[in-house]
Amino acid sequence: MLLNNIVLRNFRNYIDCEVSFSKPVNLIIGGNAQGKTNLLEAIYFLCTAESHRATRDGELIRHNEAGFYLRGTLGNSSNDVMSLEAMKRTRGQFKLKKDGVIQTKRSEWIGQFNAVLFSPESLVLVKGGPAERRRFLDLLISQIDSIYLKNLQKYRLVLRQRNELLKQIRTTLGDAAQLDAWDKLLIAHGTAIIIKRLEIFQELKAYAMQNHQKLTGGKENLALTYCSALMRNTHDTEDENAENPIEESEIRFLETKTETEIAKDFNVALSASRGADLQRGTTLVGPHRDDFLIELEKSSGISNLDSEGENCLEATDAEKEEIDEIGIFREGARAYGSQGQQRTIALALKLAELELIRAVTGQDPIVLLDDVTSELDYKRTEYLLNVLQNLSAQTFITATHAEPLVYHLNQPNVLTVENAQINHTP
Predict the structure, then answer these.
(1) Half-sphere exposure (CA, 13 Å, Cβ side) for 41?
(2) Other residues' Cβ atoms within 10 Å of the Cβ of residue 260
(3) What interhelical angle do 179-216 and 378-389 show, nearest 10?
(4) Could you tell me the pTM of the whole model?
């Protein structure tokens, strides 16, 4: 699908703006705080029904206005045209429409109009805590597998119920046997989530490593490892407070297990963790605690330093606490290397997301790249632009200056943004 045009009304700093896109590659050029990122956010919101920056829909409404409205038209190679609308009143409900028909659930929207976004916020994939990487995997898989999304929704509901019961038992000294029924449901939905994550993660890893090789000219190798919170409790059930990291061979062993074996491991892990769960009033094992480890490999081996030998950025306190609780990959919780290396890793993951969606669905997602060349050196920028030039997906790229982007891309559509006004540049 290709986005033909979009209308923004009272969205962020836009009052009333309509813009058309005549070419596959669109460069959006302008100074800071003029509206470049807001335009990409609007496109992403139409495709996914969520913002990459706002936690509430109300934050997207222009200051002192009653609500926002977005409308976009998408077309395909068969000249079929689809209309998408999103609107939110300050005191009203959020609404989505497809060809004029209201969509009752946001979850039904996910996966119909795929988009891949790279922005400065994407660096949390490398620098942030496990929750950010889980969110990345969950959104990716939900776009290509509706059954996964349903299992994820059911798992989260069961998890909330189990955690409420844990708190009640801790407060009233109730019967812990009440947890058995919730454990069965948690294992059923959680096992399905883990199985699908492992399947998709292997494909994502292969694409990400290939893209990282291209972006670095083969000078650095990216290593990704899925880390399951089940492993500590299945391998060290006698000591719930053990902090020994899991061996990489154990992670590979998990990838070869059947659904029945993983369900059994989950059951063992929940049983071993029940005492700690009751003490803390929360569920400490399950796919809601999983993570994936990111490492850079150079000729001298795995490195936690950038090319100048500067120290790695430390993990956040929240991330350290979560990693400490599950006792896995303490060093893997760090953000690696320089800002340029971190950005390159995040970009490789995002390009892998694009290729995976295309491979599974047979369609190219819309690609949104916000401030993509910032803090990349000349070589990495050149590699990136070569990759972008070979993409068949419709691409939107923001930058403060057209150079060197315009010289490396084949006849892009150049748009200038100033004070939330968009103009085509010849």
Answers:
(1) 19
(2) 9
(3) 100
(4) 0.83
